[in-house]
Amino acid sequence: MQTQLNPSATVVPNPARHSATHGASPTADLGGSAERLRSAGSLRDDEFVFLQQAYRPSGGLAHGDELATRLHVDGAGGYARLARWIVGRHVFSFAWHEHFWLPMFQFEPVELTPREGLRHVLAELVNVMDGPALAGWFAGPNDSLQGHSPVAMWATHKAAVHHAARMQRYVMT
Description:
single chain
């Protein structure tokens, strides 16, 4: 049985509405947010809005509970499956407001399985970055990718993103 992804169901609320209630501007300096996320362990509301905007073109962000429910097909436990993928470093997640979130670019849109090749990129970074830093690295501009974000380049330039991850690990170690 295949699960059809409904992007509107997995994307977090509208950033303009969200930012109006939390004081963050949807037009804030996105580069600065990405840079801080690379070195910080927790997310501010404005940084979450930055991530929401950055990931929207590639499928948005999914709330972990919702994604686990959608993965619960054919009697297979969705939470267990998702936890195995996170612990096995096939995908990454980050926490915000006591919930965990996953960028949807990591998953095949129909099957909701981890995308091929992402594990190799994550292997370069998971020992030097936590979840929020990984989210910021994928979302922010990258010099190795001529200023494009890794998430924007992922679909068409996987090898270049892998190289950028290797360079980032080298710089951080």
